[in-house]
Amino acid sequence: MGEFTIGQLVFLRSDGRQPDQLRPVRFQNNIAPYAAGSTLIEWGNTRVICAVTVEEAVPKWMRDQNVPGGWVTAEYSMLPYSTVERKPREVTRGKLEGRTQEIQRLIGRAMRAAVDLQKLGPRTLWVDCDVLQADGGTRTAAITGSYVALALAVRNLLAAGKLTENPLLQPVAAMSVGLVHGRVLLDLCYTEDVEASVDFVLVMNAAGELIEVHASGEQATFTDAHLSELIALGKRGIQEIFAAQKAALG
Questions:
Q1: How many C-beta atoms lie closer than 10 Å to residue 227's C-beta?
Q2: Most distant CA pair in the chain: distance in Å?
Q3: How far is CA 104 from CA 130, 132, 136, 222, 231, in A?
Q4: Which residue in 33, 114, 149, 194 has the most C-beta neighbors within 10 A?
Q5: What is the spatial distance between Cα 16 and Cα 129, in angstroms, rounded to a whole number?
Q6: Domain residues of the chain, as ranges?
Q7: Strand partners, 203
Q8: Is residue 177 packed enough to be buried (19+ CB in 10 Å), middle (13-18) or exposed (0-12)?
Q9: Model pTM?
């Protein structure tokens, strides 16, 4: 189980999965009682708390430019004990790592694609993603969990009468795919991720529309055929994630 062949070589995924098989995905909602909406997403051995809080104001640049509607933004961090070796808090260094900035901007863009900002009204939704345990795919887990937390927050705002219209558009989720030992694999865990010659992240909505596509060769190149296979496998896998989100939201 989990074996695949390349030429005369036989490979086994580190956790025994088939090349196109996802790790188990589970949501535990309302994990942060003081947040407007929250969930703990467990994606294999990767665990991320995603929580949404509401600020009844918009950023200064929106006020200065008289931009109508609201805003959605995100912050992302990996807790010191989320990795095998302790990861120092970035606040102690006085600045965020480039990777952290890139990921939280990606989460923010993905969540804004899920919301009609005009219907949100003059308020900001803060999406906080804290990685409790990292085993590959923290970006994809954070984006996927953030949508569930966002949907729960919107549900609560509607129930409280703070929103008169549902601002949610389509569900948004993300998926990682990679080229490992010449074979395209879905949903890489950490040991596969470090061996991947091509790293690929797909963000899309439930309508099948692409939001972002990140593909990079790790000191390697890849072909048009590889890219097509990465996209096709990522799209197939992400459909299972949309089903999991739907179940988590009842």
A1: 16
A2: 64
A3: 11, 16, 16, 27, 23
A4: 149
A5: 29
A6: 3-248
A7: 174, 212
A8: buried
A9: 0.92
User: What's 115's DSSP letter?
Assistant: B
Split at pLDDT 50, 70, 90, the class of 2 is low
> Which of the residue ranges 51-55, 65-69, 214-218 would you say has the lowest mean pLDDT?
214-218
Angstrom distance (rounded) from CA 76 to CA 82: 13
Listed residue (37, 134, 123) closest to 79, CA to CA: 134
- Other Cβ atoms within 10 Å of 107 Cβ, number: 28
Q: How far is CA 106 from CA 26, 93, 135, 190, 223, in A?
A: 22, 22, 19, 20, 25
Q: Looking at this protein, which amino acid is placed at residue 54?
A: V
Looking at the domain 3-248, which fold is it?
Ribosomal Protein S5; domain 2 (3.30.230)
pLDDT digits (tens, 9 = 90+) for 82-113: 988 898 887 777 777 888 899 999 999 999 99
* % of the chain exceeding 90 in pLDDT: 75
Number of Cβ within 10 Å of residue 105's Cβ equals 13
